[in-house]
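The freezer alarm interrupted the setup, so I double-checked each line after restarting. Inputs confirmed:
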Amino acid sequence: MRPYIEFKNVVKQFGNFTALDHVSLEIPKGAFVTLLGPSGCGKTTLMRQLAGFSEPESGDVLVDGKRMNGLPPFKRNTPLVFQEYALFPHMTVYENISYGLKLNKTPKEEMDRRVQEMLKMFNLVGLEKRFPKEMSGGQQQRVAFARALVMGQEILLLDEPLSNLDAKLRVDVRTELRQIQQKLGITTIYVTHDQDEALSMSDIIAVMRSGHIEQIGSPWEIYFRPANRFVADFVGTVNFLTARIVSAEGGTVAADHNGMLLQIPTEVPVEPGETVTLVVRPECIRLAEPGESVPEGKSLEGQIENYSFLGRIIRYWVRVGEEQFIIDDANVDLSGARSGAVQLCLDTRKLHILKDGGSHDT
Amino acid sequence: MASGVALRESVKEMKRLKNEPLLMLAIIAIILFVGFFVVYPVIRVITFPSGQDYMQLFQKARWFTALKNSLFMTLISTVSCTAVAFLFAYVIARLDVPCKGLFRFVTLLPIVSPPFIVALSYILLFGVQGIVTKQLLGLHVDIYGRLGLWIVQTVTFFPYAYSVIYGVIRSISTNLEYAAYNMGAPRWRVFKDVFWPLCRPGVAGGALVAAINVLTDFGNPQMIGGDLALLPTEAYMQISGWYDMKTASVLAVALLVPAVVLFLVKNFWVGKRSYVTITGKEISLNPFPVPKWVKWGLFSLTMLISLFILLVYGTLFYGAFTKTWGYDWSLTMKNIQYVFLKGKQIWNSIRYGFLASLGASFLAMVLAYIVQKKQVGINRLLDFLGILPGAIPGMFLGIGFVMAFNAPPLELTGTSVIMVLALLFWNIPTCYSSATAGLQQIGASVEDAALNLGANSFRSFKDVIIPLLKAPFMSSFVLSFLRSVTCLSVVIFLYAPSTTVGTISVMVLVQSGQYGEAAAFTIVLITIAFTVLKLAQWVLGKQGIELEL
Amino acid sequence: MKKFLSLALALTMALTLAACGGKTDTPPADTNDGSTAGQTGGKLVVYSALNEDNTIAIADQFKKDTGIEIEYISLGGGDAVARVQAEMANPKADILVGGSVDLYGSLATAGAFEAYDSPNNDSLDARFNDPNHFWQGWYMGVLSIIINEERFEKELTPKGVKMPETWDDLLDPNYKDVFVWANPTTAGGAYIATACQIFRLGEDAAWDYLKTLDQNVHHYYKGAGDVISPVATGEFIASIAWAHDSFKIQQQGYPLKLIIPKQTAYEIGGSAIIKGGPNTENAKVFIDWLLTKEAQELSVATSYRYPVRTDVAAPAGLPTLEEVDLVDYDRDQAASMKEAVLEKFDAEIISNRA
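Predicted 3D structure, all chains:
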């Protein structure tokens, strides 16, 4: 099937700074795609190429097969929810939401009907006459969503819309937003630097860094099968282990890490003798119960150096030889945290092998 | 390389403009307008004299002296203007003292009063026979010359530096100072290490504004400069004494060069070094209290200067109602009655001021919008056009207008149109900087949002930008109006019998020794200026907007 | 979009209309029936180097007598001439009035004036009529020494200084720094006073005189009239100025004393028709009117200038012209040597001060 939105080799420069370096991305119709990356990686710039706020030096931006380059923003039908909402401070909620319809010369009754629909959808009924400064941050944000969706267009662009909300509200809105998106079936591009938002809402995540896309994939792929150290490190907490492949047979490899042999099931093609980096998420390691016997090939010996109690888990920092491991232990005991020497048990199914020391950061 | 990129960028942006013919039209119109009414007159003046005429500047000792004198006076007056301006700004913005309203009023008076006339008060009070100097203090002071001119120019032009410095001081968060105290810095270290470095770009900017004004002033030197030869007065006398436009042009160009240098320094050197933008955001904590002796010391100094200024203007006010200026102090209304006989000229002042300010504010707003919001490749040129008239001394602009519009293709001399246009373009930079500051306060994304929702540039300008720029628009309108009503230098070569304005009358009355009538005229002009200011503040105040000049 | 356009358009139109308003509210000039008999109506644009109230008085009376409305600007003689010259390609005014006819010479040579020989000038002394008829003399002024009487009596009389009677009395060192003067290079009146010394003393002695006088001068003002008010208000004690201008300030109530010294110089005040002005026929009416007995009397009464008509009395309070001892002032020579004299004055006197 033809992708609905397509970036082809897009290059964008600001003076000598290359913000986008031959970026290509295909987005299927109805998908929720997140552009994830640290600030300055080009994610907002990429989105702005689609909205038409800036023009690429080269490369094409296509929607439904039509080339968008050169079209001014107001002819692109790509409603955008801004990070700071960008509500018109001199217009009421009603005027803000209906502004696009007014430009469109939508008849009054039709306009009323659609604004009311939005007010209902976003729990804003009764606030029509308020001005933005008379509302809470959460309410303002819902107005911004309503204003973007009222036109019923095919695309929705979201530029870190949740970053100005407090932590708890942010989690609630995530779910709500995803539900509305799925209900409307609207193709959505979401820009964020927050991995939790990306993982929890997206169909597809594109991780960006320095004007490049490092990896495109489902949240599961991004999390458990990161393409390189950068992606692994940026999305979640991670332990990197350097290991040497001892043997590789039938989908399982034996890797030597500081004299400890780990048996890892994998599809990554490796050769014996190769040095690789193992990606180990903190929750893929657990502390063995005292006296528990951990099978060979899954265990490491260590010393607890520090811990942090987070309620649902305890995060331990455990010294293993030269290295320090971060371990999230979900088995929280009422009596407190553990200390001293421990045996670690690795869930080797969830380990991921990065070839070339994981250094293929383009 | 960089220019190649910029060029490519511009070409691409121009292509994009095909989608917005009105925007393109507006850009072209602005370039043509400013080009025709600012650049063209300037070129006419510069090219009027021959190379040989220019050589006179170096051959004739007097003009070289005039150049040196002008630069020297500008230097010392700028230093003193800046010091007084900083004092006022600091006291008003940072100290918890009474009488701030009075101090503010005092900083407005010199801005709203026409040039020329105030010098009369100085002579009366502080001259050889001055009421204060001779009769009260028994001193023999000679104010004609450098010393007197220095004092008068300091008082006349410090308010221009004040408004810049005050804006900067007000926007420096007191939190920064508290942070320094918190780390154990004593008061003077906080001032020296934190406060002063943050103020410095603002102080430099204010100083340069004052410098440009001092450099191009010719009212005060005429009255009080004695034998001191200065460029603006010499240029004026070349025209009125010798009917020599060529030489006048040479001197005007000699004046233009340092003015342009000051202007470039202000806009490109200081501009880049500014840490704080003037956003008008309220500061969060009350300023950290300074020691009592410092506070009341500064207060007394400010009060002293304020009283001095009030005395000068009070004398002018009183003089407007006395029979014989400086001699017979018995009261009379005849001077005021005389002013009302010439209501036509007052009406002209108001009318031209209103139209020029309206036009300037509107044009500047469109210009600022295009420059700020549209990444059009030529926005650097447009930006330059917006601030360019600020580098041109008023008298120079006037001479340029006479030369450029005295004959077809556009023959405007003697009409009201030329008065309005000259004042309009003279006011563009003031309005432009105000509109630019206003636009910077509107988050960039607000306008993006309008475009994103389907509004083209003109719709978003009309629906979003104009309503949000109401306050800066009004403040630039009012400021331009005050400047126009009290302006002499621009119109002095442009007025005709039916287009005479109030400031011209003041000058003519002073020249023919009718000081009482001149004072009365001045009082009426100041009253009009303040009425308009208060009216605008009241109207905006009802909408919850604070108007600061 | 349309709304915006119409808004902009309306604004521009309002602006233009209002700006042009000044022109439309005066009735259009109907100068076509231009008989010089008066009662033509219409208007006349005047650049006046007279005092403003004097100009207003003339305009009011002229309107009463002829029905012609005067639009005027009051400005210094130099500014007026500069304007006429600047506008030569495209004259805006009809009449230049006031200021010494010395000023008119260069403009006449440049072709800025329309020649007109008024029927009313036949009985006047020949020196008031330009042989080429480009300008018409219509008043006379003489130079005087002006003194602030109060200060003089308080400060100089005790030193044994007597009221000055001659030009040479001004060289008394007691006048040092209480005497001011105007700069001849910028003030026409001061040049006439300078030339007066040359005609009185001869070239070399005159320069000695001027340089000695310079020792007393506190500073030089730009305009000839600028010196009067400072002396009137007592800033300074003595100066040289036109008797009529000084007399006028004296009438405001200042303790100003006028002394017309022996061998003083005089000016002939002029008026001229600007060539190609919009209302030339009315301008001729104006010149004729200026020479009438009534107009001359008005001028004497409001400006204290000496009339050119022998049947009009000199201003009350000033000596009659017969009583005044005039230097033998050669106008042609004064004009021809002007540039050289002023250059010398600038180089040897003014430049030492700037």
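Quick read of the result. Chain C has a mean pLDDT of 85.
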